[in-house]
Specification:
The chain has 12 helices and 14 strands. It is of the alpha/beta class. It folds into 2 domains: 122 residues, Nucleotidyltransferase, domain 5 (2-Layer Sandwich); 140 residues, Hexokinase, domain 1. The strands form 3 sheets. Strands 1, 2, 3, 4, 5 and 8 form a 6-stranded mixed beta sheet that branches. Strands 9-14-13-10-11-12 form a 6-stranded mixed beta sheet, with helices on both faces. Strand 11 and strand 12 form a beta hairpin. Helix 4 packs across helix 5 and helix 6 crosses helix 7. The N and C termini lie close together (10 Å).
């Protein structure tokens, strides 16, 4: 327990930067204020986005900042995987006018959020319909602009530790001829095809175009938003097939991550996962998650949940700040 404090929570991804004032109670409970969502593409730097948020609050900001960023944490300079901003940690307190700051990987933050979330903050996807275990490792992954991966370990007594990873950059492993075709298409542009080239929001374009080529259709250029919209609404059968194929690949990757991390449970996170939750439940996600040969029976014992908290990155950034004190 400690003194209550107010901070600024920030969640910077490839497409959006989100800001909110957060109150951390003496008992550690976190309350988020109204969320401001800014486009990274329309701001020259994090500094200008920060200034826009500060202006929108109409008052002085707290002098403590917790930041979740979509990239590797380097003490000297942070470059983002999917946006052109650069942050120099040694200059943060001077540039932002704050007294304290904490920077964590975005999925490290999401893992903090998952570790603290209530059972009501999850939707069950597959495996035993039980709460996440109170001990052992919980894998956390989520598709967005990229593919974030982390995990947290619980000691069975209420304490936990979080580990950030770059698991989204592991090699993509196709399991059938359709995924072979997707991989072949991607290899024309990338010498090495990582899982996030197939399991991320923008990846739906390549999946869709690969399916069109298999059927001998003329490829119609569409952006990822249009394909996701048409696929989830059912207005385009080929887009729907692409979305279903995405769900299969997500299930395969989630199972791989669980095996690699020795997980006793899995959490799917991210706005994309939440938006397609009904499609995910009706897809072959669960079958692909369990399809691990000799370990299929083991995979069937793992509860897999989808976190439904609307701002896990912001909640997690604030939780990481509280956890570090």
């Amino acid at each position: 327990m400690g003194a209550a404090q107010d901070i600024v929570a920030v969640d910077i991804g490839g497409t959006h930067a989100r800001f909110a004032l957060a109150h951390i109670g003496a008992e550690g409970a976190i309350e988020l204020g109204e969320v401001a969502t800014l486009q990274t593409a329309t701001h020259a730097s994090f500094q200008t986005a920060w200034e826009d948020f500060a202006a929108s609050t109409g008052g002085a900001l707290p002098d403590k900042v917790a930041m979740a960023v979509a990239g590797s944490i380097n003490p000297d300079i942070i470059r983002f995987t999917n946006n052109p901003w650069i942050i120099r940690p040694p200059l943060i307190e001077e540039k932002l006018g704050c007294a304290e700051h904490l920077i964590v990987n975005d999925f490290e933050a999401v893992a903090h959020a998952a570790a603290r979330a209530e059972a009501s903050d999850f939707v069950h996807l597959t495996g035993p319909e039980t709460d996440l275990p109170e001990s052992g490792t919980i894998s956390v992954l989520g598709p967005g602009t990229g593919l974030g991966v982390a995990h947290f370990w619980r000691d069975g007594k209420g304490a936990y530790r979080v580990q950030a990873t770059e698991g989204g950059h592991g090699d993509f492993a196709p399991l059938d001829s359709i995924e072979d075709a997707i991989l072949a298409r991607l290899r024309k542009r990338h010498n090495r095809v990582s899982t996030e080239r197939v399991v991320s929001g923008p990846a739906i374009v390549d999946i869709y175009q690969a399916l069109a080529a298999i059927e001998g259709r003329a490829v119609v250029e569409q952006d990822d938003v249009a394909i996701w919209t048409a696929g989830t609404s059912g207005t385009d059968s080929l887009a729907a097939a692409a979305v279903d194929r995405f769900c299969l690949s997500l299930g395969s990757v989630a199972g791989d991550i669980a095996l690699v991390q020795g997980a006793s449970g899995v959490v799917i996170a991210g706005g994309l996962g939440f938006r397609i939750r009904d499609t995910l439940l009706a897809s072959g996600f669960a079958d692909r998650f369990r399809a691990k040969g000799r370990f299929s029976s083991l995979m069937g014992t793992l509860p897999v949940k989808l976190i439904t908290h609307p701002q896990p990155g912001l909640l997690g950034a604030a939780a990481a700040f509280a956890h570090s004190r």
